[in-house]
Specification:
By secondary structure, the chain is of the alpha+beta class. The protein is built from eleven helices and 21 strands. It has helices at residues 2-8, 25-36, 39-51, 58-65, 100-117, 120-136, 168-184, 188-204, 249-258, 261-264, 399-402; strands at 220-221, 265-268, 271-274, 280-286, 289-297, 304-311, 315-322, 330-334, 337-339, 345-346, 349-356, 361-366, 370-373, 385-390, 393-398, 409-411, 423-427, 434-444, 462-471, 483-484, 487-489. The strands form three sheets. The chain has a six-stranded mixed beta barrel. The chain has a six-stranded antiparallel β-sheet with strand order 4-5-6-12-8-9, with no helix packed on it. Strands 2-3-7-11-10 form a five-stranded mixed β-sheet. The termini are far apart. The structure holds zinc ion. Residues 167-169, 215, 248-249, 252 line the site of zinc ion.
């Protein structure tokens, strides 16, 4: 099939000088090149990446040729090249635009080609697009693509919580992109985002029992406006669906989970980078040696990690362990002896270089406090609000634990800007066991209100309550109800 596509597309006479409408083949061709060693597959991937957005615009020309009709639509179609990221050559791009899944799949393909070809222009564009997405257009859950119309990016800092699109596949595509950037430039900023997307928006895409799925991952839900109550929210489902007409997300989650090993580690020369603290056993080839790492991890609930090295004969290499952005303090022991971290951290990874022998163990303890997350001041949907996070998990409030009208809740702040302590409790019987967060909060009372919609003679009054937060990935496993990630904060 790939050979056929290579025959059909290209700049030679008789070929179509164009590219795909939905980027994805770019990644697949690089995988095929790595598997077969056949350079023509890499060349074809590079052709598609580089041809994109060149003038005259292929998508416009092709639509013209087809009389502005499409197999999918009977009427006249319109083409916005930016929706397909075909509005300019990829190395000139610096903003996330258009269909979100297409965008991040394209970025992953660009990073793949940049790695294989050493093309600096492509690499620089990847860095710019990474910053554009993760600094200006990403939810705290790792969701991207905030606009339902076109399943697309909107504009910088426009991250509505209740009408969010945040497709599961888009977060998976962001993980693909992050993993490829880690191979080009091992920096923890990519792994931090990879972990954020994995533990939050991607895991939320599947029900606890694995039988129903979210395509759309909102950060705030009011069930009465979904299901036709307000058609702006027609895409938002308050509970997971069994299947979809276009069922891209469920198998994408399955594929990601089944290939998770590819995301836990990467190897550059003689350094093994540990990006995710996920238990498992992996073999690596370092020089002439096979190195086996067995990892045990207490994440996401506690920050205890233990890695054991298995070797036939002693060999020197570097183990680089990620220090996650959510952990303010880390302790390291090698073979039971504490080691100072100072001076050993580069780009967010603690590097341990030594001659390793069979049975060596590393113990890492990552402090895991409850974090009070705030948004950039220009994210108007989160202004005056706070979200709780512990370790890689972002938390949310559900009606099941906190009653309805979650928008009337206030989280108090203590003196000097420090927040009230939040209690972390293990709940064995809740959805397979999880750590909840409990904190004092205030609820707006409605008792003194009458029939009127508006009043000028009213002073809001609040009653104390205990707010209970569950991990975002677990929401909507107990029937239909309100949910919110961001909560108003008392000033
Ligand atoms: Zn999808």
């Amino acid at each position: 099939m790939a050979d056929h596509i290579a025959e059909v597309f290209g700049d030679e006479p008789g070929q179509i000088a164009g590219y795909d409408g939905h980027q994805e083949i770019e990644l697949a061709l690089v995988k095929l090149y790595r598997t077969t060693g056949e350079k023509r597959y890499l060349d074809l991937s590079r052709y598609f990446v580089e041809k994109r957005g060149q003038e005259p615009n292929f998508l416009i020309a092709e639509s013209e040729k087809r009389g502005w009709t499409s197999y999918w639509h009977s009427g006249k179609i319109e083409i916005d090249p930016a929706y397909f990221q075909a509005h300019k050559p990829v190395w000139e791009m610096d903003t996330a635009v258009g269909h979100a899944v297409r965008m991040v799949y394209m970025c992953a393909g660009m990073a793949d080609v940049a790695r294989e070809s050493g093309d600096r222009r492509l690499y620089d564009a990847c860095e710019r697009l990474w910053a554009a997405i993760t600094n200006r257009q990403m939810y705290v859950t790792g969701g991207i693509g905030s606009m339902a119309i076109g399943e697309a990016f909107s504009v910088n800092y426009d991250l509505p919580n209740d009408s969010a699109y945040s497709e599961t596949c888009a977060s998976i595509g962001l993980i693909f992109f992050a993993q490829r950037m880690l191979q080009l430039n091992p920096h923890s900023k990519y792994a931090d985002v990879m972990e954020r997307a994995l533990y939050n928006s991607v895991l939320a895409g599947m029900a606890k029992d694995g039988r129903s799925f979210f395509y759309v991952n909102p950060l705030e839900v009011h069930p009465h406006v979904c299901n036709g109550g307000n058609h702006v929210f027609d895409h938002v489902k308050p509970v997971r669906q069994e299947w979809f007409g276009c069922a891209c997300c469920p198998p994408n989650v399955a594929r990601l989970i089944a290939s998770l090993g590819d995301y836990v580690y990467t190897v550059n020369d003689s350094t093994i980078f540990t990006h995710l603290y996920v238990g498992g056993q992996t073999d690596f080839t370092i020089g002439d040696h096979t190195v086996t790492l067995s990892q045990q991890s207490a994440l996401p609930w506690e920050g205890e990690v233990r890695v054991q090295v298995q070797l036939q004969e002693s060999t020197t290499f570097t183990l680089a362990m990620r220090l996650p952005s959510w952990s303010p303090n880390a302790k390291l022991k090698v073979n039971g002896k504490e080691r100072s971290i100072a001076g050993k951290v580069k780009d967010g990874y603690m590097r341990i270089e030594k001659e390793w022998t069979d049975g060596d163990t590393i113990e890492l303890t990552l402090e895991m406090p409850v974090l009070h997350m705030h948004s950039h001041p220009l994210v108007r949907a989160d202004s005056g609000k706070v979200a709780l996070q512990r370790g890689p998990l972002v938390y949310c409030l559900e009606e099941a634990d906190n009653g309805a009208n979650l928008s009337g809740l206030l989280l108090p702040r203590g003196a000097h800007g420090s927040s009230e302590p939040v209690k972390v409790t293990w709940k064995e019987n809740l959805l397979g066991g999880m750590k909840l967060l409990e904190t004092e909060a205030l609820r707006l009372t409605e008792e003194s209100w009458g029939e009127e919609l508006y009043r000028s003679d009213y002073t809001p009054s609040y009653e104390p309550m205990k707010a209970i937060f569950i991990p975002y990935y677990a929401w909507a496993n107990r029937g239909k109800g309100e949910m919110t990630v961001w909560v108003k904060e008392q000033v």
